[in-house]
Specification:
The complex is a heterodimer of chains A (95) and B (484).
Chain A lengths: L4 H10 L6 H18 L34 H5 L5 E2 L2 E2 L7
Antiparallel strand pairs in A: 1-2
Chain B lengths: L5 H10 L4 H19 L2 E4 L1 H17 L9 E5 L26 H8 L3 E6 L33 H8 L5 E6 L5 H7 L2 E4 L19 E6 L2 H11 L17 H4 L8 E5 L9 H16 L3 E5 L7 H16 L18 H12 L2 H14 L5 H24 L2 E5 L15 H5 L6 H6 L3 E9 L2 E9 L4 H14 L12
Parallel strand pairs in B: 2-3, 2-4, 7-8, 7-9
Antiparallel strand pairs in B: 1-3, 4-6, 5-6, 5-10, 9-11, 10-11
Helix pairs in contact in B: 2-3, 5-6, 7-16, 10-12, 10-13
The chains are: A mainly alpha (95), B alpha/beta (484).
Chain lengths: 95, 484
């Protein structure tokens, strides 16, 4: 099954990546090439094989619910594109 | 001084043959004069390196030095370094100065290692040639018209050209081992979870692992000793004791069993590389290693499986780059969606976009079972192949890469051809196993890598076998002619 131009447009939207119309043809061809490679997976029957959850079969560790980090808002916001009064600024979302 | 191993430099520093300041100045001078030919560094840290070297000299005088105190190293630009730019080879993070050190960086700093700078890499570690970097490709010091491999191409080229005593790298599908092979150095990918991933920019979180890139296996042991170990900040970091890697190096190899996977020596492997491997296998035999054929029947499925798992996890990890809290933001966004879409379109290069889109597609509604679930089942089968093999042998021996370094530009326009460079390295990441690449006899003046794979947490055994090979051969001592 191959992707279509509309599929690429939809995927790019889901991934929140702006694609110019002239770029789409190249991505369509390349993504289909990668999916052809991936389709080799279907040569093997995996009926009944348990999917691997972790290469070492480890379980997620738990820790006590305690405050361990100090407030470093200024350091974090110093590298932000746009902040004001301790807030990250983005274009207006709610009219 | 630059031709010496870390072990030799460490001894020289303790004896007072030279100071860390002299050593650091020497490497900085080499970077200054030689790196314009290679482009292996993205950011140099001359001032902080000199200050750290002075501190190291003080520690050496006071007698509180470790084996790494005063040793000038470089970090792949994927490790966060407080106050020093961490670009990850991407325009997205061109302006990113991390507010903290990665655990790997913090541990090496604490041991007294001096940071010379940050090395070039494929963008977000996605590539096998270092050509996807926003900062331009790295050249292979053995032939400047060829690639150094990737994604840790800058670290590999810098170590090979003797611009640093050692370097860090990361390996998601071969990104330490393949460039180590193409540049003629030693590169170790540890067991998944052996080294903390905290502060290492995430690509595919179930596969990513950091490791050392050095001239010798002994040096790799010295770096791994400090890098490895439990870190509560990384929930996937293994809480396993770290053995004394250097103590194990000298063990005799007699009776060690090595397996050659028949699938790794078939069509697709360059004849010259195969002949080099034969020579190295003969050396192992002469050291008492028992060699036998084994089979990893699901090997051909490793690359297709990886190109579902890695892009899926990449699309999820890279969703954080949204132009809001840090990184690149587009000019004059007209609304929030435009801000996301244009910031990401401008910030990411084509290979990263391809992988994000593949990952987005395979995880999108209705496709999960056909792709991600199928891939995780195949991952299980690939892993079972290895476990069966390790019932018969202690280590697995094969090529690291199918050929020697290829010319710049040869594969960059064909993603699938590029992906096949990692055909022998990818399966170990899928199974979470450790692997090491060692330089063996060159072909037409270009380095060749031999790969050893061990069972989980068998780094000491890998380093032992690697060190014994290097004690009895001199392939690892070859220096690129223009960088002697």
């Amino acid at each position: 099954m191959s992707l279509t131009d509309q599929d690429v447009e939809k995927i790019a939207h889901l991934a929140r990546i702006q694609l110019e119309p002239e770029e789409r043809a190249r991505y369509l061809q390349e993504l289909n090439g990668i999916l052809d490679l991936v389709a080799q997976m279907n040569r093997v029957d995996t009926e009944g094989v348990p999917p691997m959850a972790h290469p070492l079969h480890m379980v997620q560790r738990l820790r006590p619910d305690l405050v361990t980090e100090s407030d470093r808002r200024e350091a974090f916001q110093a590298i932000a594109p746009l902040t004001e009064a301790g807030l990250y600024l983005v274009p207006k979302v709610i009219e | 001084m630059h031709e010496k191993s870390i072990a030799e430099l460490s001894a020289g520093l303790r004896k007072g043959a030279f100071s860390s300041l002299e050593l650091t100045q020497h490497f900085l001078q080499r970077i200054e004069t030689l790196d314009p030919r290679l482009n292996s560094f993205i950011t140099r840290a001359s001032e902080t390196a000199l200050a750290a070297a002075k501190q190291a000299d003080q520690r050496i005088r006071q007698g509180t030095a470790t084996a790494l105190t005063g040793i000038p190293i470089a970090h792949k630009d994927i490790f966060c370094t407080q106050g020093l730019r961490t670009s990850c080879g991407s325009r997205m993070l061109d302006n990113f100065i991390a507010p903290y050190d990665a655990t790997v960086v913090a541990r090496l700093k604490e041991a007294g290692a001096v940071i010379l700078g940050k090395t070039n890499m494929d963008e977000f570690a996605m590539g096998s040639s270092n050509e996807t970097s926003w900062y331009g490709p790295v050249k292979n010091p053995w032939d400047e018209t060829r690639v150094p491999g990737g994604s840790s191409g800058g670290s590999a080229a810098a170590v090979a050209a003797r611009l640093c005593a050692g370097a860090t790298g990361t390996d998601t599908g071969g990104s330490i081992r393949q460039p180590a092979a193409l540049c003629g150095i030693t590169g170790l990918k540890p067991t998944y979870g052996r080294v903390s991933r905290w502060g290492m920019v995430a690509f595919a979180s179930s596969l990513d692992q950091a490791g050392p890139m050095t001239k010798t296996a002994e040096d790799a042991a010295l770096l791994l000793q400090v890098m490895a170990g439990f870190d509560p900040k990384d929930s996937t970091c293994a809480d396993e004791p770290v053995p004394d890697y250097t103590a194990f190096l000298h063990q005799d190899l007699r009776g060690l069993r090595m397996g050659l996977p028949v699938e790794y020596f078939q069509e697709g492997l360059d004849a010259g590389v195969a002949a080099s491997l034969e020579q190295a296998i003969a050396v192992f035999r002469s050291l008492g290693v028992e060699i036998q054929d084994i089979s990893l029947p699901n090997s051909p499925l490793a690359v297709p499986t990886y190109y579902v798992v890695a892009p899926a996890e990449c699309s999820s990890n890279l969703a954080r780059f949204d132009g809001v809290r840090y990184g690149h933001r587009c000019q004059d966004p007209k609304d929030l969606e435009d801000l996301y879409k244009r910031s990401r379109a401008e910030g990411f290069g084509p290979e990263v976009k391809r992988r994000i889109m593949i990952g987005t597609y395979v995880l999108s509604a209705g496709y999960y079972d056909a792709y991600y679930l199928k891939a995780q089942k195949l991952r299980q089968r690939i892993s079972e192949d290895f476990q069966r093999a390790f019932e018969q042998v202690d280590l697995i021996l094969g090529p690291t890469a199918p050929s020697t370094a290829f010319p710049l530009g040869e594969k960059i326009s064909d993603p699938v051809a590029m992906y096949l460079n990692d055909i022998y390295t990818i399966a170990t990441n899928l199974a979470g196993l450790p692997g090491i690449s060692l330089p063996i006899a060159p072909v037409c003046g270009l380095p060749v890598g031999l790969q050893l794979i061990g069972n989980h947490f068998q780094e000491a055994r890998l380093l032992n076998a690697a060190h014994q090979l290097q004690r009895h051969t001199d392939w690892h001592q070859a220096v690129p002619p223009g960088f002697a």
